[in-house]
Specification:
alpha/beta; 2 domains; Rossmann fold; 6-stranded parallel β-sheet; 13 strands; 13 helices; PseG; 33% helix; globular; hydrolase; EryCIII-like_C; hydrolase activity
């Protein structure tokens, strides 16, 4: 089975789309599929990382027109994107699946890309635009609890996979929960691969007065506050500042409290039962974060732009001092996620392709 994934990463977009697609790609590859990526060469792209992990990549232009908006939800000039993809794929036989994970693309792009693949899958979080696909995945809790969120956006032929049961997590997250200790000893702070919102630094300022906890900070690439954060960490021997980490899972396993965004790490935290103070750093995270808070999964403090240091400090203190609440969050989150979502989606793709992942045209 041949699979092409169309997704982007950048300082503005973040790394979450590529991260979850990469998880699915590894599962498919291990099941015998030939998986490739097509990505724009934006500032902060991850094409080299994908190539280093053994995937063939196709680099698309960073910009199609002079006034193009690179906001995470901005519509992409779909005709130009399809044309650029076609140029990259010249001489390639059609793929069995084309997977698109991009807020800026919709049914127009999907219909125009039909010549590249026998079937198309969309990964979405927004439920705000039409899709012309055979399979749609929305792994968010909002997609599970809202009434038919995609009824108006997909046709009757589309199979939908909705909710955290299908969250695209690496195999290591099929794991036992962490132990909930009477006292928080280690705090982990991360707001995505790039931290475009600058929320890591704001969180460290709120943590300044805590002298009895260890703090691990994964600040992300190109963080604009790196120097200031380095100075804060240098004065605190129990603070460890990481640009990247080769074993984020191990850091999560050893943490007692997580402070982070409402993106893809939400489901990793849930799989571990890791109590969380959540702050949304993008508009598309707000609904899901709020619904999860109402379901007793985490403490949600709202959008980062509406949050000050005192409110953040008070929220952190609330969870630090309440082991019963942390235990309740852990139990509620574990009920949502079992870590097998990527395999479920891979098996669905293979089944719709005729039941085999390995082999040309299988």
């Amino acid at each position: 089975m041949r699979v092409l994934i169309r997704a982007d990463a950048s300082v503005t977009i973040g790394s979450g789309h590529i991260a979850r697609c990469l998880t699915l790609a590894h599962v498919l590859k291990n099941m015998g599929a030939d998986v490739r990526f097509a990505c724009r060469a934006l500032t902060g792209h991850l094409l080299e990382r994908l190539a280093d992990q053994g995937f063939i990549t196709y680099a698309l232009p960073a910009r199609y027109q002079a006034d193009e908006d690179h906001d995470i939800e901005a519509a992409l000039p779909w005709q130009a994107d399809v044309s650029a993809l076609g140029e990259q794929l010249q001489g390639q036989p059609p793929f069995d699946w084309l997977i698109v994970d991009h807020y800026g693309l919709d049914a127009r792009w999907e219909n125009a890309a039909r010549g590249f693949a026998a079937r198309i899958m969309a990964i979405d979080d927004l439920a705000n635009r039409p899709h012309a696909v055979e399979l749609l995945l929305d792994q968010n809790f909002s997609a599970q609890v809202l009434d038919q969120p995609y009824a108006r956006w997909v046709g009757p032929e589309c199979q939908t996979f909705l909710g955290p049961r299908f969250a695209l997590l690496r195999d290591e997250f099929q794991c036992d929960p962490i132990a909930i200790k009477p006292r928080v000893e280690r705090v982990l702070v991360n707001f995505g691969g790039f931290d475009a919102a600058g929320q890591v630094y704001a969180t460290l300022l709120a943590l300044e007065g805590l002298d009895d906890v260890q703090v691990d900070v994964v600040a992300g690439l190109h963080n604009p506050h790196w120097q200031a954060m380095s100075e804060l960490a240098a004065a605190r021997p129990d603070w460890r500042l990481h640009t990247l980490t080769g074993d984020f899972f191990a850091l999560m396993q050893s943490a007692d409290l997580f402070i982070g965004a409402g993106g893809g790490t939400t489901w990793e935290r849930a799989a571990l039962g890791l109590p969380t103070v959540c702050i949304s750093v993008a508009n598309n995270q707000q609904l899901n974060a709020q619904l999860l808070a109402e379901a007793g999964v985490h403490l949600y403090l709202g959008p980062h732009l509406q949050l000050d240091t005192r409110q953040l400090r008070d929220g952190i203190a609330q969870l630090l001092g309440d082991a019963a609440l942390r235990r309740a969050f852990a139990q509620a989150s574990r009920r949502l996620v079992d870590g097998r979502g990527a395999r479920r989606i891979a098996e669905a793709l293979i089944a719709m392709n005729g039941g085999a992942a390995a082999g040309q045209g299988a």
